[in-house]
Amino acid sequence: MLVSTVTFPLQELYSNTVAGQILNSFSRLFTHFLQWHGLTCGFDDLLLLKSAESRRQVRMCKACQSSTDHTVNKLRSRPTF
Fold first, then answer.
1. How many structural domains compose the chain?
2. Which domain holds residue 18?
3. Are the beta carbons of 28 and 37 closer than 8 angstroms?
4. Closest CA to 24 of 12, 37, 40, 6
5. CB atoms within 10 A of CB 10
6. How many alpha carbons lie under 13 Å from residue 7 in its C-beta half-sphere?
7. How many Å apart are CA 59 and CA 39, to the nearest integer?
8. For 15-23, which contacts have Cβ atoms below 8 Å and span 24 or more sequence positions?
9. Which of 10, 23, 46, 54, by CA, is between 20 and 30 Å from 64?
10. Per residue of the chain (81 residues), what is the pLDDT tens digit?
11. Is 81 in a helix, a strand, or coil?
């Protein structure tokens, strides 16, 4: 909301080039902020315990089977031409 409130008057008063430069500056500022204060994911965050990995595999198999069953049932219920 703030960006549109700033850029539209600049576009009207000055030019599209100035409005584009302002948007570019905001983009760089916000990107820098997210890189500086954003969330990080380290290697330790990716490691799973064996028990957690086995639970994840079971859930993935159930989800895969469920989606496969759902798709097959939808295809069976389609009218043929």
1. 1
2. 2-77
3. no
4. 6
5. 17
6. 15
7. 26
8. none
9. 46
10. 566 677 888 888 988 898 889 889 989 998 998 888 777 777 777 777 888 888 889 998 998 888 888 888 887 787 766
11. coil
Token pair for 71 = 């798709």
User: Rounded to a whole number, what is the distance in angstroms from the first to the last CA of the chain?
Assistant: 51
CA-wise closest residue to 11 among 19, 23, 3: 19
Lookup result for tokens 């584009």:
20
Structure tokens at 66: 């469920």
Q: How many CB atoms lie within 10 A of CB 20?
A: 13
Region of residue 40 (phi > 0: left; psi between -120 and 50: alpha; otherwise: beta): beta
Rounded to an integer, what distance in angstroms lies between the CA atom of residue 31 and that of residue 10?
A: 22
Residue 48 neighbours by CB under 8 Å, 6+ apart: 56
**Sign of the C-alpha dihedral computed for residues 23, 25, 28 and 34 taken in this order:** negative
